[in-house]
Amino acid sequence: MSEQRFPVSRLDASQPDFEQVLNKLLDRRMIEDADVARTVADIIYQVRTRGDDAVLEYTRRFDRLNVDNMAQLEVSRSQMEAALAALEPELAEALRHAADRIRRYHERQLQSSWQYEEDDGSVYGQHVIALDRAGLYVPGGKANYPSSVLMNAIPARVAGVKEIIAVVPTPYGEDAGGAGRLIFAAAAVAGVDRLFTIGGAQAIAALAFGTQTIARVDKITGPGNVFVTAAKKQVFGEVGIDMIAGPSELTIVCDGKTDPDWIAMDLFSQAEHDEQAQSILISTDREYLDAVHDSITRLMPQMERQAIIATSMQNRGALIYAPDQQNALAICNQIAPEHLELSVEKPDEWLPGIRHAGAIFMGRYTPEALGDYCAGPCHVLPTSGTARFFSPLGVYDFQKRSSIIRCSEQGAARLAPVAEKLAYNEKLQAHALSAAWRIPGRKA
Amino acid sequence: MSEQRFPVSRLDASQPDFEQVLNKLLDRRMIEDADVARTVADIIYQVRTRGDDAVLEYTRRFDRLNVDNMAQLEVSRSQMEAALAALEPELAEALRHAADRIRRYHERQLQSSWQYEEDDGSVYGQHVIALDRAGLYVPGGKANYPSSVLMNAIPARVAGVKEIIAVVPTPYGEDAGGAGRLIFAAAAVAGVDRLFTIGGAQAIAALAFGTQTIARVDKITGPGNVFVTAAKKQVFGEVGIDMIAGPSELTIVCDGKTDPDWIAMDLFSQAEHDEQAQSILISTDREYLDAVHDSITRLMPQMERQAIIATSMQNRGALIYAPDQQNALAICNQIAPEHLELSVEKPDEWLPGIRHAGAIFMGRYTPEALGDYCAGPCHVLPTSGTARFFSPLGVYDFQKRSSIIRCSEQGAARLAPVAEKLAYNEKLQAHALSAAWRIPGRKA
User: Fold this and answer.
1) DSSP-assigned letter for residue B137
2) InterPro entries this protein is in (chains A, B) (predicted)?
3) Which residue would you say has higher pLDDT here, A263 or B373?
């Protein structure tokens, strides 16, 4: 059936132009759209200076919602609880089951304060404290993700954040009996304190600077569209930001022994998010790539989101032949994928070679979809190669540290001469005197 | 002597307008200078597209350095070692002593990978890995900070970063026999791999995108001037960024029992960095504030950096009366200072009330200056109230995490129905099938 195969890129890492072809496929340069940046800067300025009025105005304009006060955009705790109570029991149970697993995993990430005492009686340490208030962006758009409410809010709750404010684009607010219901129910399960049906750059600005109704938060987490991403970048520093996210992506490495249909469906599960999503398969077995290619071709027409999947697979997908394991690992590290499936017999032998990946799904029985919903780890992950430096969203994102230094009189006398020496060499006399005066007898 | 007292602001927290006066003094709004942002965007674009040529061009223009190739801007490992060997022994010893203490403190911050097994044989965990390459910005400008080389590089080295590239503005390169020598020696002590005498937005762009000579790094740390700060913000997301820094600041809380001269000198030690630096004293004892005011007045003329200190103290300093401990703590948390001295009898009784501070210096024998050089904790700290969400620079900044999920066949069969249920509710059929097909007998 090779002649009618679905048109997905086939790459060969043993070819001299592979590097170049791969880089073109990855297309990593962030799109610096000057128009988007200007629009976003203006929205931020308006919300910062005019508060609620500006939020209402943009929500009317962009979300085409007929609102004239913020109360219309807030979902109360009792509305969240009511949405949960109204869910079919099986679905409520699935949400609770997922929440429970996410909570258990994240409890292991909690960091504690520590300190130690030196022999001179001085004490050094690190004080670990939860953020006061976190703002969670729950994406709307092409799909409806109650799982994202759990994945953002539970790590914050585990960290001990005092107040969690979530925002989700308003279209869900209109459809309180439909898709929104599940978001509201998930907010109840996750313990969100306040929920606003607003989105876009105006929601980010409201969280970053606060308005009459929405309290300023200390950190904003969660992915969104290009306007949300641009806004997060522009407010970075005024407020904490988890990461800068691009389209979602999956790389699978397979040794050729997993059911090709499973792998095709795993690739589709990534592709169905968005036309810009990226699904890549790497294998050291050329014939296996043919088999997956055939599965893709055969399964495609059965997919409900075929249009999105086909566009994503055709424009951004690839099946890559790698001559050996070392080569396959090098490609993985170059991609630094958000999701990495090691669909191989002995994934433990591959793991030490992986340097950059958001989440690693090991073995044939760990499709990304299990991680997306309920395995436990967070599904908010670094994209576009940023796994080189960003980490999955976690409890650590909602904790911060203060250094603790407590010198004893003896400890100060021991350290002060070192500080004095270095301070005079940096020509900072006040530093030198401030240290030296703690030495007995040094101050006149 | 009150009539000739040095003109520093005296605030009273029991006055009705205090909140407003304090906010004005803090002046927290980041200066969004559109001209600076545009200039920086252009520099980044030029360096990104033209590489070394653009770096050389800006270095000639801004640092007035006559250079025509990058080799002239690189300090080799042997030059660093030679600078260290040529230092007077006492100074070399002070650097090594400081480095040793910084290393010991930071070793406690190292995070390790972890995993746990569920009863169904599934394994969950977190893989913690050092960054491949870090870029450290060492500020130049009004003072010369070899201590900053130690404070940036040692946490990176402890984390296990493979390659550390440091940059420091070129004027030091010209003065290889003077101030630069100490920077080069500190780089040798700290284990910096490559050192370039470049600075400004062009150095940030070179580290973020790489040039023919400078390899692209994964994260950039360390504070700089407004151009450096604007550049760090603009490249955030392309590369990791530690924090967005403003002028340095110190808040002291004193119970009125510390030598007023010590406290005045501590305030001066912050003020001498920069005219924009901020030194604030809070006390529950009005007479003590008078005593410190007198010390400030008397000691000021003796200071080598009197001009800078006087400008900083007059424009941005303050002596604040707070009626009681709770009130003093509330003011501290509102300031969220970079450095906080608890110069009180029982600092442990104050600590639980502190929610926001970069570093906390406890007791009368712990002036900030000891922490600046050699106590152990990092002196790269969150400023301008960003201690609400940023942490001190640390080993954790140079480590990143990947989530690990390894489902057993039994574990997948247990999780897949939950994922399937949630996926269908999010209308993501491929997610549902990808999960469900791992359940025995579910795939036709």
Assistant:
1) E
2) Ald_DH/histidinol_DH (IPR016161), Histidinol_DH_CS (IPR001692), Histidinol_DH_monofunct (IPR022695), Hstdl_DH (IPR012131)
3) A263
* Positions of CATH 3.40.50.1980 in chain B: 2-24+246-389, 51-111+135-243
Among the listed residues A249, A272, A338, A341, the single catalytic one is A338
Counted residue by residue, chain A has a size of: 444
B116 and A108 within 8 Å at the Cβ level: the answer is yes
Per-residue H/E/C for B75-116:
ECHHHHHHHHHHCCHHHHHHHHHHHHHHHHHHHCCCCCCEEE
The overall average pLDDT reported for chain A is 93
Point out the residue among A370, A388, A405 whose CB comes nearest to the CB of B362: A405
**Catalytic residue list contains B174:** no
* The CATH number of domain A34-112+131-241 is 3.40.190.10: no
- Tell me the residue type at B48: R
Query: In this complex, which of A266, A347, A429 lies closest to B305 when CB atoms are compared?
Result: A429
Give the gap in angstroms from C-alpha B181 to the nearest C-alpha of chain A. Answer: 11
Which parts of A101-154 are beta strand (E)? 114-117, 123-130, 133-137
Decide if A369 and B271 are in contact by the 8 Å CB cutoff. Answer: no
**What CATH homologous superfamily does B2-24+246-389 map to?**
Nitrogenase molybdenum iron protein domain (3.40.50.1980)
Asked if CATH classification 1.20.210.10 holds for the domain at A2-30+246-389, the reply, yes or no, is no
Residues of chain A with CATH 3.40.50.1980: 2-30+246-389, 34-112+131-241
Reported ipTM:
0.94
Structure tokens at A170: 């308003």
Instruction: Provide the residue type at A354 as one letter.
Output: I
Annotated binding residues of A for substrate, as ranges?
248, 270, 273, 339, 372, 426, 431
| Active site annotation includes B420 | no
pLDDT at residue B36 above 70?
A: yes
Asked if A143's CB is within 8 angstroms of B126's CB, the reply is no
pLDDT tens readout for residues B10-27 = 999 999 999 999 999 998
Is B389–A239 a contact, with Cβ atoms under 8 angstroms apart? yes
Arithmetic mean of pLDDT, A240-248: 92
3-class secondary-structure state, position A144: coil
pLDDT, tens digit, 9 for 90 and up, residues B195-207? 999 999 999 999 9
Supply the pLDDT for residue B142. Answer: 55
User: Across the A/B interface, how many CB contacts are shorter than 8 Å?
Assistant: 370
State residue A173's pLDDT score.
44
Amino acid at A115: Q
- Rounded to 5°, angle at Cα A149 from A144 and A152: 135
Higher-confidence residue of A247 and B436: namely B436
Contact A218 B388 (CB under 8 A): yes
| Interface-testing mutation among B90, B113, B340, B389, with chain A (most A C-beta atoms within 10 A) | B389
Residue A406 has pLDDT above 50, yes or no: yes
Catalytic one among B272, B338, B368, B420? B338
